[in-house]
Design a protein that fits this description.
With about 400 residues, the chain is mostly helical. The protein contains 18 helices and no strands.
Length: about 400
């Protein structure tokens, strides 16, 4: 009994030591297992992230290569490994649109828009998709939101490009006034850049804003006086506005630049005709800046041409059904003073000179309506008649 009592503390210590060692071993095993688990999880997460990046890169590459269907598969796989990655979601929405899944792409972008309504790229994408869906007003609204939205990188350049795209969209839907406004805003915020000025000029022509277009062609010529595209386009606009002298000068310069550059492409046949017609108009036109003798001679020649045109038209009409009312009015005028005054009387009477030219213009305009389009010098007089102010200095 005494021995057992003396051995009890020793046995107790051994038991405590043994239990402590067991507990320590268990603890070390637990730590080791935790470390292995953590390592395996980290390795798995790293592998998932690596796979997500690889599939995302593949998706981006196939989009650039023009294979959106393949990109859709790759990007969806990337998002399965790394859900919620914004860049991949944007690429997937883009790929859906490129592949022709317009409605699905639209809805996907709309979901992204709800979390970031001020994103310029998302709004631009929605504008293009709305245009495909023929939702005109929605497209316009998204275009405007894109212009005033946030952009990564050069926001000024991107907003200007979006505004130009919007103007083209408006032109395609015949909203020419709104297109002109957008183009003028884009031009007002733009630097002095020749390619941009040419683009603005061409779009303004399409928007039926010839004066504004001419302004931008002139800006191009101020920087590049030999720019053939600007010379030819400006010449056409000047001709259409009745500025035949300026039209002739510009087109003549354009033709000269072609020859100087030894270009295999000369000015177009239509431009060549315009060059010849403008030269002939300037030779026929009784411009007020001319010496009085020469102006009077031109008035008399124009009157002779108009009288022959009137007589031919009258014969044609009367043979069919008798003179029409406009021709009857002209017939009375051709019996008046404007048709009979001689050279001496016209030389000393500027008012009578103007009255005679008014008779010439009325004749060319009315006979073109009744007897069809004239040819030769009559056609040129008709062109001049549409811009009577072109006679002024």
């Amino acid at each position: 009994m005494t021995l057992q009592t003396e051995q009890y503390p020793s046995m107790k210590r051994k038991l405590i030591l043994r239990d402590s060692l067991n507990l320590l071993v268990l603890l070390l095993i637990t730590i080791a297992l935790s470390l292995v688990t953590l390592f395996l999880f980290s390795s798995f997460a790293s592998h998932r992230e690596d796979l997500a990046q690889r599939w995302a890169a593949r998706g981006q590459a196939t989009i650039k290569a023009g294979h959106p269907e393949q990109a859709i598969v790759a990007l969806r796989t990337a998002l399965s490994y790394a859900p919620g990655v914004r860049s991949n979601e944007l690429l997937l929405a883009q790929a859906l649109g490129d592949a022709g899944h317009t409605e699905e792409s639209y809805n996907y972008f709309l979901g992204l828009w709800e979390t970031e309504p001020g994103n310029g790229f998302i709004n631009l994408s929605l504008a293009r998709l709305a245009a495909k869906k023929k939702e005109v007003q929605a497209a316009i609204n998204y275009y405007h939101a894109s212009i005033y939205g946030t952009w990564e990188g050069d926001g000024v350049l991107r907003r200007r490009d979006v505004r130009l795209e919007l103007s083209q969209f408006l032109i395609s839907h015949q909203d020419l006034s709104a297109a002109r406004t957008e183009l003028l805003i884009a031009g007002g915020n733009a630097p002095e850049d020749v390619p941009l000025a040419l683009t603005l000029a061409q779009l303004l022509e399409q928007a039926s804003a010839p004066r504004d277009a001419l302004t931008y062609y002139q800006k191009v010529l101020a920087q590049e006086p030999k720019n053939q595209q600007a010379l030819e386009s400006a010449a056409r606009l000047e001709y259409q506005s009745g500025h035949f002298d300026e039209a002739h000068r510009l087109m003549e310069q354009a033709a000269s630049e072609h020859e100087t550059a030894s270009s295999p492409e000369a000015i177009s046949p239509d431009d060549k005709i315009m060059l010849e017609d403008s030269a002939r108009i300037l030779a026929l036109a009784p411009l007020k800046k001319l010496p009085n003798n020469e102006r009077t001679a031109r008035i008399l020649k124009a009157r002779d041409l108009a009288k022959k045109r009137f007589d031919a038209c009258s014969t044609q009409v009367s043979a069919a059904s008798g003179l029409s009312s406009p021709l009857q009015t002209l017939s009375a005028k051709w019996a008046g003073k404007e048709a009979t005054e001689g050279r001496a009387a016209l030389l000393n009477d500027p008012a009578q000179q103007d009255a005679t030219m008014e008779l010439v213009f009325d004749t060319e305009i009315q006979t073109s309506k009744i007897c069809g389009a004239p040819t030769g010098d009559d056609a040129l007089l008709l062109q001049f008649a549409r811009f009577p102010k072109a006679m002024e200095p």
